[in-house]
Specification:
single chain; mainly beta; five-stranded antiparallel sheet; 0% helix; 50% strand
């Protein structure tokens, strides 16, 4: 059943312009693709030059006044790389940075989690963090140009998942507390609700295929991958259910849509799914320690997976008394599904995203 949702303008933001403290590396000299990594337990963001595989600088959120418990969680990027956004669970903020990593805007939003940029309209969608016990049952829609925000009622509790249609027509979210998915038509804000049968899945993460034909959703508690047909985009139809390793996390498609990748936090593995036949392959190896975020290079050649390592299952290259607080990014060759590099970052890395170079 379709419902109309009232929109409530909650807050406008005063833009802030200040430069973050950074490590080695010239902003002007780097024109290639960069990987930004949220160090959720370290109040910082690591920036990796994908051409060299080196951390070229670190954005210190404490130096920007957000405190040691800021908890940066997820990153979303403008298609041309001109601006990027990060959710701060602990600071109850969504921040906007420009290409030179200058903070140019911020807005209040209680326990923000996942982010999704609309491909053509001036909107950034915001869900709630999984760590929030009883957050408002509302999604945020930020106007990116001025960082003003509206909140949209979603009826069900704990909306976390965000999966945006690449064509910008629909946005899907799901409840952590119930087996329900909500689909919102962007054009008129009309919504439909889809109930999912079976045990309590905890519908944690989702992604829409590049062609907009398929929605995939992970069941955190059941170790299931739920595959929905979007022939009627406003009414996802469950087409198949796959058993995967425990706690499937952030889902990401390859640019051509032929592969789907995600980490399995409780298994210390990564799953690769061939979407042409839905056969799964499991990737294991040194460095995979509570895998969390995932993203794919623009040419589809490499998969990048952040590893929280909060249990200290990965020992870093350099001996240190804080070795259990060293996270990493595993680089996986998508042709061989082999881990080819481990890049050490800050503690508890979570969301990661590629910012395209300016060349």
């Amino acid at each position: 059943m379709t419902r109309r949702i009232g929109w409530m303008i909650l807050v406008a933001v005063v833009l802030v312009a200040c430069a973050p403290r950074v490590g080695p590396g010239s902003l002007e000299a780097q024109t290639g693709d960069l990987l930004y990594v949220c160090n959720q337990e370290g109040a910082s963001i690591s920036v990796i030059d994908l051409a060299t595989g080196e951390v070229v600088r670190t954005i210190d959120l404490e130096s920007l006044g957000f405190g040691e418990n800021a908890k940066p969680h997820h990153i979303a990027v403008e298609s041309d790389g001109s601006f990027w956004y990060v959710s701060l669970i602990g600071a109850n903020k969504v921040l906007k940075f420009d290409r030179q990593d200058r903070l140019v805007g911020q807005v209040d939003f209680e326990t923000p989690g996942m982010l999704a940029v609309h491909p053509s309209a001036d909107w950034l969608f915001v869900g709630r963090s999984m760590t929030a016990v009883s957050p408002p049952a509302r999604l945020g829609i930020i106007n990116r140009s001025d960082m003003s925000i509206e909140e949209v009622e979603v009826v069900f509790p704990r909306p976390h998942m965000l999966a945006a249609d690449p064509q910008g027509r629909f946005v899907h979210t799901a409840s952590l507390g119930e087996n329900q998915i909500m689909t919102m038509a962007v054009a008129d804000q009309g919504v439909t609700f889809t109930s999912v049968e079976g045990p309590h899945h905890v519908l944690a993460h989702g992604a829409v295929s590049p062609d907009g034909a398929t929605l995939v959703v992970s069941g955190e508690h059941t170790g299931k991958l739920l595959v929905f047909d979007l022939g009627s985009p406003s009414q996802p139809r469950l087409a198949r259910v796959l058993d995967v390793n425990p706690q499937p996390w952030h889902l990401v498609f390859s640019p051509d849509g032929h592969w789907l990748y995600f980490g399995n936090q409780l298994a210390n593995t990564v799953t690769a799914v061939d979407t042409r036949d839905w056969v799964t392959k499991v990737i294991g190896g040194k460095g995979l320690a509570e895998p969390h975020g995932a993203t794919v290079s623009r040419d589809g050649r490499y998969l990048y997976v952040s590893n929280r390592n909060l249990k200290g299952e990965y020992a870093p290259a350099a001996a240190t008394t804080e070795w259990k607080r060293v996270g990493n990014v595993a680089v996986i060759d998508t042709r061989t599904l082999a881990i080819v590099r481990i890049i050490e970052v800050g503690p508890g890395p979570s969301g990661i995203e590629i910012i395209p170079g300016s060349e």
